Amino acid sequence: MSSIIETRLSPFGLYFEKSLKGLIKEIRNNNNSREQLMEFLNNELITYQKEINNITSTNTINNLIVKSNIILKLTYLEMYGFDMSWANFYILEIMSSKNFQQKRIGYLAASQTFYKDDDISILATNLIKNDLKYTFSNNINNTNNTNSVSTYKIGIALNGISNICTSSLARDISDDLVLMLKNKNPYIRKKTIIALFKVFLNYPESLRDNFDAFIDCLNDSDLSVISTTISVIVELSKKIPNFFIKISPILYDLLINIDNNWIIIRLLKLFTNLTNFEPKLKFKLLPKVLNLLNNSNATSIIYESINCILNTSMLDANDFSTAQICLNKLLEFLNSKDPNLRFISCSLFIKIGKININFILNYSNEVLNFLNDIDISIRLKSLNLLVGITNDDNLIDTVNILKNQLIVNEEKIVVNSNKEIKILIPMDYKIKIIKTIINLVSINNYSNVPDFNWLIDLLYDLVFITKDSLTTDQKELGILLGHQFKTLMIKVPDIRTDILVNLIKLINFKDIEKIPISSILPDIIWSIGEFSTLIDNCNDLITDLLNLNLKDTKPINYMIITLLKLFNNYCNPTSDSSIPTTENILIYLNSILEYLSPLSYSKNFEIQERTNETMEFLKISKEAIEATNEIPILISEVLPGFFNSYDLVPVSLDIQRNIFNNELNIDLDTPFLSSEEMGAIINESLLNTDTSDNQVSLLKSLDYDWDSDADSHSDFEIQSNKSLNAEDHVTENLLDVKDSNNHAEKVVKQKSDNPFILDSKLQTRSVQSTNSLFSSDNKPQSNNHQIKINNSLNSVVDENPSEPKLHKKITVLTEATLPNFSSSTGILTTEISSLSLNPASTKDLTKKKKKKNQINLNLPNKLESFDFKNNQITNAIQDADLMELEELRQKFKSQANAERNAQENINSDNDEVIIIKKKKKKTKKKDTDGKEKKKKKKKAKPAVDTGPKLLTQNPPNII
Amino acid sequence: MTQIKYMILASRQGKIRLMKWYIPLTQKEKAKILRNLTTTILSRKPKMCNIVEYSDHKVVYRRYASLYFICGITAEVDNELLILEVIHRYVEAMDSYFGNVCELDIIFNFSKAYDILDEMIMCDGSIAESSKKEILFTMSNMDVMENSDNLDRVLS
């Protein structure tokens, strides 16, 4: 009933729909809970939908009023995250209204809701074109009134274009817009330029054809027009810098003459883009930029100048004076009260440090101050700087500052004498701290560490702290810490016992397997096993390890071999006095077997393999003990042979691969024995079955072992390849080497009188450990190669003589490298290079260049990538245009010829003729130039060549 | 050019008062950004800096009374200080337009707030006009036009 009254009253200017104000007030009333609000808003939406669909009145003006009101409310509701694409058509309707207010609402709604490639923008094309045209005629009528309604209508339409521009729209309006560049009103010129930017992006031909007209805007009388032009050029120069190199003199003049800060900043940005493309520019620019830097009071200009210097590699790695100027300015920022300036100076410090780390060496105090900043985000950034300023003197202090921040969750900082501010120290900051600490100590092969006992304590503390303070699982951190322990174990022999003590402490923590960094466990377990010779009571450790309740596959995997190693050292202690009795051996043997037996059914292939190998070996040993009641050879000699033959030395990443890539020429394909010889040997061994039962079972089990070994080796190969590809640690590799060595040795020992064909993979792996296996008559090449490696290993294992530290007595082993390889740099150097000068910066540069190239290519592609149909249409249209052009050109030609003939007839002056000819030549040249340019830009469409330029240029030249 | 990815006005309670996207995003992405940004920025203390790194870009924000003005910009390309200046100019322009602007003004006249923003920043967040005077002049002219349009309608 009421709705009928409402509709009847509406012709009299009375409306009962809720106004926007009403809606907002109701929203505020319904704001008690989120559910209530959502319910209310949903109801509102449904009402609006009904209202807008049910408009039946024939009075279009009133309809529009109602609709625009609803659309305005919908636009408001859009901020609450409602989808209003269903109303797109109504928005279009309002956009086409002649009422200024409604048009404004329509365009606002359109720019808020139209998604870029929406179908609706195709419909909008005509509308926008109309809006521009409609106002054109209007504008011509009252050209004197520069601020007429039409001006603002154009303004609104141009705004709309800049928000919803598709390639078809761009093509259709590009010519209109270019014409509007000549409009008398700077307001329109300004907006046109920005709208043109979108057109250029979507329709690159427009830029090509109207480049000069566009650049002319730099000479505009209105400052904001110049400003917007530069804005657009900056943006375009990111994508096609080569296009703007030629106007750099104009831009340089602007930079010198203009004193508007906004424009200067954008010019600096522009030159940053251009200089990265054309490095020659920087010599001319640097004095001017430094001048700006020194004389400007505006911080944003100083910031931009420094940015410009740093981003364009104007700052040479050896140019200490320029760096000093920048750093002096930064120091002012750094001590400023404004946190923004501090943040900015911090990020600029990092950039300077990347160019040459020596620039910031003397600023350690300033950098350390960053670490105590109120703002965590500044601290977070400054962590990247620490690598640059730490040395062996301040390392401990620096790390202590960091460590203290790890412990607390909340920090109180006193500001302005009395005020106290509490800051929460977030988790990601703590994680970053730990990573930074690890990076700091391990840099340059631990050359900054003054005291390794301190380092061990530090690492232990880190594990302890992270164990409690982290809440979420931090796999990465655990792996990092684990690697540190393992690397130290291998590289610093003198402190192995100390580390071992700490590791055993860690293992005995309650619920160590459940801490957030439980991923540290594999490395701990491995380290304990590998250096178990240093432990006297391995038997107790075995019990401890067996009590661990491991769930993850990775630690279990390491556990199996570690148990075997411990068992080995228990049975074969270094001092003869402590050799255990057979009863005791059996006890531990049984408990290990008990632990292993469920694992032999593990779903993890590798665990199953390792378990079965180990179990078979232990079972045989057990039988032997039970049979003879004394320690069998298997345990006393074979078992140590698995592990103790060689010392472990650090090896560079990739070195194994390099051996085969560069240095050696080994035939891996030819088997040691031909298949006939093999068969003979196998037959022989089968014939010799009159040996004891024990031996037969041994043989069988060994056969089995052999197969599984081969398999697991191939498995290792895959694993190690993975680790080579991924960023991994040296020791990861080491481990694989070691393990595979173990297997190889095992094979060697067990099979020394039963040779088999070694497949290539296995041989790859066993190369380093092959001593007795390959007799010289079998494999001379492999023997040669082996000597080489051993030599190289031995030569580098010694203390690194290049850095003699007086107060450092502890030897740090460097990774073994092959002498001739320049490529095997190892992981540490890659870590350093993140802050060292050249690799990083050049990388950045090449990256940038690549990017540019891509975008360069993109420009012509842009059109093609849009919509193929559209493209064809363009082609068709352009072809048609071309035909017309051709006809016109013919006409003009004939006209021109006629006129020229006439002229020649009238005054048969020779000079005149020559001049005309010259002119003609020139135009021709221009044409060909133009053609070339266009061809370069757009190979896909050679037919487009003859642009409208021809038409406009030819006749006036001739006439 | 200062390329602003988006401009968001959020109240201290995390309510969105105005948002303008200069890059095409889906409704879902927008919602995610809004959610993340409001929580991170509202939790920041007054003494902290106004620049936050968020996913692949930087966010510059500034607080005026109960309103946070939040701008997403491209990292390494844009001048953070300039953006702060842009935000300030915008607030100044609104202040003069509404006369001592408060949050309620922006809520009830959100379309005007958008219009002022449109006069300052155009497509892809390039600054079209930095002069407050110019913006206010344009705005008042447009308002006069609206009113005269309405007058015409009543008279007809």
TrEMBL record, chain A:
<keyword id="KW-0175">Coiled coil</keyword>
<dbReference type="InterPro" id="IPR011989">
    <property type="entry name" value="ARM-like"/>
</dbReference>
<dbReference type="GO" id="GO:0010008">
    <property type="term" value="C:endosome membrane"/>
</dbReference>
<dbReference type="GO" id="GO:0006896">
    <property type="term" value="P:Golgi to vacuole transport"/>
</dbReference>
<dbReference type="GO" id="GO:0030123">
    <property type="term" value="C:AP-3 adaptor complex"/>
</dbReference>
<comment type="similarity">
    <text>Belongs to the adaptor complexes large subunit family.</text>
</comment>
<feature type="domain" description="Clathrin/coatomer adaptor adaptin-like N-terminal">
    <location>
        <begin position="48"/>
        <end position="620"/>
    </location>
</feature>
<keyword id="KW-0653">Protein transport</keyword>
<comment type="function">
    <text>Part of the AP-3 complex, an adaptor-related complex which is not clathrin-associated. The complex is associated with the Golgi region as well as more peripheral structures. It facilitates the budding of vesicles from the Golgi membrane.</text>
</comment>
<dbReference type="GO" id="GO:0006623">
    <property type="term" value="P:protein targeting to vacuole"/>
</dbReference>
<feature type="region of interest" description="Disordered">
    <location>
        <begin position="894"/>
        <end position="959"/>
    </location>
</feature>
<dbReference type="InterPro" id="IPR017105">
    <property type="entry name" value="AP3_complex_dsu"/>
</dbReference>
<dbReference type="GO" id="GO:0005794">
    <property type="term" value="C:Golgi apparatus"/>
</dbReference>
<dbReference type="InterPro" id="IPR016024">
    <property type="entry name" value="ARM-type_fold"/>
</dbReference>
<keyword id="KW-0677">Repeat</keyword>
<keyword id="KW-0813">Transport</keyword>
<keyword id="KW-0333">Golgi apparatus</keyword>
<dbReference type="InterPro" id="IPR002553">
    <property type="entry name" value="Clathrin/coatomer_adapt-like_N"/>
</dbReference>
<feature type="compositionally biased region" description="Basic residues">
    <location>
        <begin position="916"/>
        <end position="925"/>
    </location>
</feature>
<feature type="coiled-coil region">
    <location>
        <begin position="24"/>
        <end position="58"/>
    </location>
</feature>
<feature type="compositionally biased region" description="Polar residues">
    <location>
        <begin position="894"/>
        <end position="908"/>
    </location>
</feature>
<comment type="subunit">
    <text>Adaptor protein complex 3 (AP-3) is a heterotetramer.</text>
</comment>
From TrEMBL, chain B:
<dbReference type="GO" id="GO:0030121">
    <property type="term" value="C:AP-1 adaptor complex"/>
</dbReference>
<protein>
    <recommendedName>
        <fullName>AP complex subunit sigma</fullName>
    </recommendedName>
</protein>
<dbReference type="InterPro" id="IPR016635">
    <property type="entry name" value="AP_complex_ssu"/>
</dbReference>
<dbReference type="GO" id="GO:0006886">
    <property type="term" value="P:intracellular protein transport"/>
</dbReference>
<keyword id="KW-0813">Transport</keyword>
<dbReference type="GO" id="GO:0006896">
    <property type="term" value="P:Golgi to vacuole transport"/>
</dbReference>
<dbReference type="Pfam" id="PF01217">
    <property type="entry name" value="Clat_adaptor_s"/>
</dbReference>
<keyword id="KW-0333">Golgi apparatus</keyword>
<comment type="similarity">
    <text>Belongs to the adaptor complexes small subunit family.</text>
</comment>
<dbReference type="InterPro" id="IPR044733">
    <property type="entry name" value="AP1_sigma"/>
</dbReference>
<dbReference type="InterPro" id="IPR011012">
    <property type="entry name" value="Longin-like_dom_sf"/>
</dbReference>
<dbReference type="InterPro" id="IPR000804">
    <property type="entry name" value="Clathrin_sm-chain_CS"/>
</dbReference>
<dbReference type="GO" id="GO:0005829">
    <property type="term" value="C:cytosol"/>
</dbReference>
<keyword id="KW-0653">Protein transport</keyword>
<dbReference type="GO" id="GO:0035615">
    <property type="term" value="F:clathrin adaptor activity"/>
</dbReference>
<keyword id="KW-0472">Membrane</keyword>
<feature type="domain" description="AP complex mu/sigma subunit">
    <location>
        <begin position="3"/>
        <end position="145"/>
    </location>
</feature>
<keyword id="KW-0968">Cytoplasmic vesicle</keyword>
<dbReference type="InterPro" id="IPR022775">
    <property type="entry name" value="AP_mu_sigma_su"/>
</dbReference>
<dbReference type="GO" id="GO:0048203">
    <property type="term" value="P:vesicle targeting, trans-Golgi to endosome"/>
</dbReference>
